[in-house]
Amino acid sequence: MKEDKRSVEVCFSPALFANYRNDDSVVVIVDILRATSAIVTAFMNGVNRIIPVGTLEEAIAYKQKGYLVAAERDGIVRDFADFGNSPYNFRREIIAGKDIVYSTTNGTNAIMMAKESYRVVIGAYLNISALVNYIWSEDRDLLIICAGWKDKFSLEDSLFAGALADAVLKNKNFGTVCDSTYASIDLWNLARLDIMGYLEKAAQRHRLKKNKLDDVIGYCHTADLTGIIPVLENNYLKSLNY
Amino acid sequence: MKEDKRSVEVCFSPALFANYRNDDSVVVIVDILRATSAIVTAFMNGVNRIIPVGTLEEAIAYKQKGYLVAAERDGIVRDFADFGNSPYNFRREIIAGKDIVYSTTNGTNAIMMAKESYRVVIGAYLNISALVNYIWSEDRDLLIICAGWKDKFSLEDSLFAGALADAVLKNKNFGTVCDSTYASIDLWNLARLDIMGYLEKAAQRHRLKKNKLDDVIGYCHTADLTGIIPVLENNYLKSLNY
After folding, report:
1. Is residue B115 part of a domain?
2. Predicted model pTM
3. Shortest alpha-carbon distance between residue B89 and chain A (Å)
4. How confident is the model at residue A1 (pLDDT cuts 50, 70, 90)?
5. What residues in chain B have their Cβ under 8 A from chain A's Cβ atoms?
6. How many domains does chain A have?
7. Cα–Cα separations (whole angstroms), residue B75 to A178, A203, B72, B93
8. Counting Cβ atoms within 10 Å, is residue A215 exposed (0-12), middle (13-18) or buried (19+)?
């Protein structure tokens, strides 16, 4: 890779972040099934801010202060919460103009972990083309962090990382020498013509199916429903204006 | 996966070991370029024992006691050492019947990390069919740990993990629900007909080439030169008899 190029890297697990950390980069957080797809949907439906919190205790404390709270663990909505992790929860009539507190198994910790970076944004198929244009416009290094499942590698997040990296690298100002970026792109090219078929083998698909929560998988793999990019500002997510 | 099957899992980085740890399993350590290929070669050439040590300080202490020492960092032989990390170093006339102390950037820490497991063995293309037969004969879960590069994902180790997992899963007593295992097998099937071509993009290939150490890449991807399986016993590696 020529040294004047912006680098593209993919981090397959939040537990590997220290090894890929690059505070000058734009960081895209990916948790396709379902946290980042749900967050993008919430902004599509007019939410004002989303406050990511790591622990259920923090989420409960916000609930007691009167906030709307989305909280799940292992895919299941917690009793005290108003919503779980399904994008279908975040309906306009309930959330428009509101602030929501959000705590999930994998996604929210990954968001807060990267907060020292130049910019942290939320990635999903729903906003993928907007992301590509935004990343090009920043002209900085790109680090894609897959939230995975309890710090393990996940196929559905890696496929998205490959889709995003492949698109970003079409711009010759960007380059990569990162093995996980190449692997992601190869997996994406294997899967892209039949994503649902490919994901038959993904562990998360089976977890969601077992809990009858797999109705969202097609929706979460739909490209370009919005141009909105949620961005971390201080300790909350808002819709990016750029 | 049926619950009576033995599970196959792939851990893409030593930094993820805690998330995949399974002390009842056979663990295969993989550092194709070059540590595990070099270790297998040393046993092919009659080494008695290999003592893996994590730090250069430990390696120096052994050297002062009169041991033969292999020690490299970032691919480069250290001044005090008798050998680096190239399989070509371990010639029969120098090592037959001897004990060697071994410290590398990525491989040796991965070996010692898993020492509480039922059994830790050393994997390379050089002994892949012997490994498959051994794993089948144990009839236990299998965990393949890729040493990677400084805790990052590496293509060459993941391809080998895919080759080994693919072969082990031909036996229907074994099954997997592990996303990284599926990804490894898919990458292996993409690369298998032209491994050298595929590895053109691997970062480690470029590191070795830059240091003129890439002469071993073909050798390290040669299948079944031996039936020897190095195994961790107490704090050293010896040749497995089973």
Report:
1. yes
2. 0.96
3. 27
4. low
5. 12-13, 15-16, 18-20, 149-155, 158, 177-180, 182-183, 186-187, 190, 201-204, 206
6. 1
7. 18, 37, 6, 24
8. exposed
Predicted local confidence at residue A109, as pLDDT: 85
In a domain, A237, yes or no: no
Averaged pLDDT, A205-226 = 92
Q: Which of A179, A186, A204 is facing B202, going by the closest CB pair?
A: A179
A142: CATH: 3.90.1560.10
The label of the residue with tokens 């704090």 reads B235
Q: A154 and B182: CB-CB below 8 Å? A: no
Q: How far is B174 from chain A (nearest CA, A)?
A: 16
CB contact under 8 A, A153 and B12: yes
**For residue A163, what are the contacts with CB-CB under 8 A and spacing of at least 6?**
A125, A128, A188, A192
Q: Do B19 and A150 touch (CB under 8 A)?
A: yes
Q: Do A179 and B206 touch (CB under 8 A)?
A: no
Task: State the Cα–Cα distance between residues B87 and A181, nearest whole angstrom.
Answer: 29
- Separation CA B16–CA A165 (nearest Å): 23
Instruction: Give every CB contact of residue B22 below 8 A, 6+ residues apart in sequence.
Output: B7, B9, B117, B141, B143
Q: B240 lies in a domain?
A: no
Is the pLDDT assigned to residue B1 strictly greater than 90? no
Q: Which of B13, B149, B183 sits opposite A187 (nearest CB)?
A: B183
A183 and B153 in contact by Cβ < 8 A?
yes
Residue A128 lies in domain: 6-231
Kindly indicate the confidence band of residue B107, based on its pLDDT and cuts at 50, 70 and 90: confident
Residue B178 phi/psi, 5° resolution?
-105, 120
Answer yes or no: is A242 within a domain: no
Sheet bearing A230-233, strands edge to edge: A76-77, A68-73, A99-103, A49-52, A236-239, A230-233, A119-123, A26-30, A142-146, A6-11, A174-175
**Sheet with B6-11, side-by-side order of all strands:** B76-77, B68-73, B99-103, B49-52, B236-239, B230-233, B119-123, B26-30, B142-146, B6-11, B174-175
pLDDT, tens digit (0-9, with 9 covering 90-100), for A90-109: 999 999 999 999 998 888 88
Token pair in block for residue B175: 């099954």
CB contact under 8 A, A16 and B15: yes
Query: pLDDT tens across B30-54, in order?
Result: 999 999 999 999 999 999 999 999 8
Mean per-residue pLDDT, A134-142: 97
